[in-house]
Amino acid sequence: MGKATLDHKTEFAASREKLYFLKPGYIVLLSTVPVVAGFMSGIQFALPLFITVPSFLVMRRWLMKGKVGTAYAEMLLSCLWMSIPLVLLSLYLPATAEKVIFKGPKYIADMDQWIRNGGATEGTPSLFIPEHLIHMGMIILGSILTGGLLSLFFGAIQMGYMNYYAAWLTHETGGSSSAYLLGWPVWSIIRVFSFVLLAVVLAQPLLHGFNMKRINIRQMFQLIALAIILEGIDIGLKISLGPVNQEVLHRALEQALQAARVVWGGFI
To answer: What are the pLDDT digits (tens) for 221-263?
Structure first.
């Protein structure tokens, strides 16, 4: 038992097998093609669906082999690679992005209000903490009930509107790369790490047919606890540093508007 636990811990720390999302061909096949196809379809929920299916198949393959760490690394890399075409497509084809990215315009409206005036959901802990917890609950239930399929789908929706916001912010500030980085503050990145970890770890029971002998139970609960801690850090940082981020973005928008009256309708 001790050796098995050690093997699981060693596997989670590092895998010697080459990750799919580190191979150029697979990056194109599993990330770029699904994003472009879903985006250009013009159908709102086609985008997260096209993103979810290949990611789920990769995650399932590693989890069925007992390689939790590898599955987690793959899903984090999937989030990274899908962000690149999502941002570029949103910059070049904003009208299409507005149509196909679920919650995109609503999310931008809320973030724009927060940047310009403070408050809104983003600046009000009593509003965004319950929202975060609801999202976490959806990830947890989606993984437990569907082996991770619905949790990845929900995660793809979130990645869609958050990257749409980052693209909008880049455009509104005149193409500022620093604005894009501020559009993905550290607490949002930590939230991605937390939610992906929950999605991967809690997918195991169903995928293994609830045969708990095939799962390292101790490791599973340790990783669930880690994910909860990460989400706590996310909330803490957002409360403490969010106002600073808001002030920086507000100044950046004001400077951009003084330099040129930009209109959200195409960056290049």
So the answer is: 999 999 999 999 999 999 999 999 999 888 888 887 666 444 5
Give me the domain span that covers residue 231: 2-259
pLDDT of 36 reads: 96
| Cβ proximity of 154 and 37 under 8 Å | no
Give me the number of domains the chain comprises: 1
CA distance 186 to 151: 22
Residue 266 domain-assigned (yes or no)? no
In a domain, 264, yes or no: no
Asked if residues 173 and 91 have their Cβ atoms less than 8 Å apart, the reply is: no
Look up residue 113 and give its two tokens: 């209000």
Q: Is the alpha carbon torsion for 155, 126, 172, 184 positive or negative?
A: negative
- Give the angle 51-111-263 at the CA atoms, nearest 5°: 90
Reference 29, options 47, 1, 55; nearest CA is 55
Asked if 59 and 75 count as a contact pair (C-beta separation under 8 A), the reply is yes
CA–CA separation, 188 vs 238, rounded Å? 8
pLDDT in tens, 4-32: 444 444 444 444 568 998 998 999 899 99
Q: What is the distance, to the nearest Å, from the Cα of residue 229 to the centroid of all Cα atoms in its chain?
A: 17
pLDDT in tens, 68-98: 999 999 999 999 999 999 999 999 999 999 9
